[in-house]
Fold:
Amino acid sequence: MSEENIVFCKSGGCTAKLGPGVLEHVLSRLPKKKDDNLLIGFDHVDDAAVYRLSDDLAVVQTLDFFPPMVEDPYIFGQIAAANALSDIYAMGGTVKTALNIVCFPEKMDLNILGEILLGGNSKVQEAGGTLAGGHSIADEDVKYGLSVMGTIHPGRVYANNGVREGDILLLTKPLGVGIVLAANQMKAASAAAYEQAVNSMTTLNKYAAEILSGYEVHGCTDVTGFGFLKHLDEMIEEQYTAEIDSSQIPYIEDAARYADEFYLTAAGQRNRNSVGSDVWFSDVPFWMEEILFDPQTSGGLLAGIRPEDAQSALGKLKKLGLPCAAVGRITKRREKKILVY
Amino acid sequence: MEKRIDAVGKQCPMPVILAKKALEETPEGGTVTVVVDNDIAVQNLSKLAVQKQYGFVSRETGKNTYEVRMTVGTADKEQTAEETGKRTDNIRERTGDTVVVLSSDKMGEGDEVLGKMLMKGFVFALTQLDQKPDRMLLFNNGAKLSCEGSDALKDLKTLEEGGTEILTCGTCLNHYGLEEQLAVGEVTNMYMIAETMMQASQIIKP
Structure:
């Protein structure tokens, strides 16, 4: 591997996110302007902003960018784009336009940048959107992502926190991506595990969102840097508890072994510190705990739907080809916000 | 046998993986010292220690510098703790919490008035310690201590403000009809009580 590649790939992806604790602290100090048309802003812990333009039309806005987590620049572009586009799908929206966000070292080979942008563009097109411009900054390290605009009916927005008692929680992609990437960084990941991680990260949540749109979705988010449990935590209102069946959690098989071998990220530990006190683990092995705290890059959708719809929706999701499952259900509030057994 | 790993500037999982490899090659009783530059790396190292049952002592040796000393085998913690103890401040045993268990609102057998006075004094004394307990478990008559009207309430609140987790048994509150009276800390259940005790590095029961 060339020297340049090593510089190219630091610990990237969503593991590069600021910790949730730090972020909450800073955001809570910002003065807020009230606008009744801002249906979802950051007083919610949601994935994107939703602004109502008329009674039947709202725009969804989001942006996401991060440093590379894989060596191949084209695949990195695809992953970064799939990850940014995902926030639109987590709200139930349709992708319209996207703008590139680029940080790139002046001295680095421009062909690498070309590959990143090609990869990103391929995913914007697959999403049915149009790449409409962007902004680039000379920087020490590579970072890439998108600002995405989509549309949605104001009455059909999936808030994070709309889940209610009885709902079944569906997860549409396998967990463990952060652990596999950490192992891969140390040259310890198997080719199969790496391939499964890349396949999952480059898959658009578009297809899962299209399936979910055929059902009554009570709450939806995408699982990214804060890991399964922190994103789940943000979905659960005070009067409810999420009961998670760890035997149902879809994960990249080798990630269990890598977790037991301590290929663990700093972000995973920050997630544990942030949400660990809300979670009660009953007889869950260490590696599974780590998988549930593991930061995901371009992770799947986590949605709460009515129990009578769960089997039918899951059947369709399974046909998409990625490991997915009904991972738990919502009950009345019990001892803890999240119970994992 | 002693090894030293400088993992300053290295991101997770690097420090943990380097430590793990070194520890696997270290014979029983040997130690590996890892120097890292952030607290999260210390926490990830502590997970390694807990899972592999290595002795574990960490201390902050400077701004953004932490030294973690891990011992292979039967975790000869007393020795390591004692050695690092001579090097003074900021020593944190990360293998478990110090848990104070209060199963009664009285301290010791004998006169009831004296027992209650002693318990109030004990809780106050806890507030004055340099090293406060990580958690306190209150059950049976002990559950009354965290409720409205208790003499110890003020001191328990001081402890909570200082970072001690105060956990009162929910079944006990129900039994004594005190569920609305809890004035400090959180309600807990028997699973949490059992787990907290199992994972404690020391349990203090007056």
